[in-house]
Amino acid sequence: MFDTILIAxxxxxxxxxxxxxxxxxxxxLRSRVILFHVVRQPPTYALQAGFYLPPDELRKAATEHxxxxxxxxxxxxxxxxxxxxxxxxxxxxxxxxxxxxxERERADLIVLGAHSQGALQRPTLGSTAEKVSRHVRxxxxxxx
Length: 144
Hints:
The protein has a single domain, classed as Rossmann fold (3-Layer(aba) Sandwich), CATH 3.40.50.620. Helices cover 43% and strands 21% of the residues. It is built from five helices and five strands. A five-stranded parallel β-sheet has the order 3-2-1-4-5, with helices on both faces. Helix 1 (13-29) links the parallel strand 1 and strand 2. Helix 4 packs parallel to helix 5. The chain starts with a strand and ends with a strand.
């Protein structure tokens, strides 16, 4: 039923829980996992504040950092789960990259961390999870 599980992570604490739960689910269902991290381009103000690298070096450094994030998260997956780690330097918004990858890889399930947002700090969907949920045709497991 869920042959391919896409676990999309960022550097938030919810990502660790998404990997843990998604990995256990994959192990029980004998699914393969695609662990995915979108590297965002730095905001313009960071570049204006004196942080400058040539575009190719910036992309390389950001992608290397993304690989480190994935390797650390991938170490949490059960050994029996076949997995692939993918990092993408964002051409689009992270939600759009997740949707496109899920379609390309024919993911059967997407696992995302749900962030707490809002003035009252009540649990709500983060903008990425909300947009992914509106644009994919497969089930989504949100982890808090």
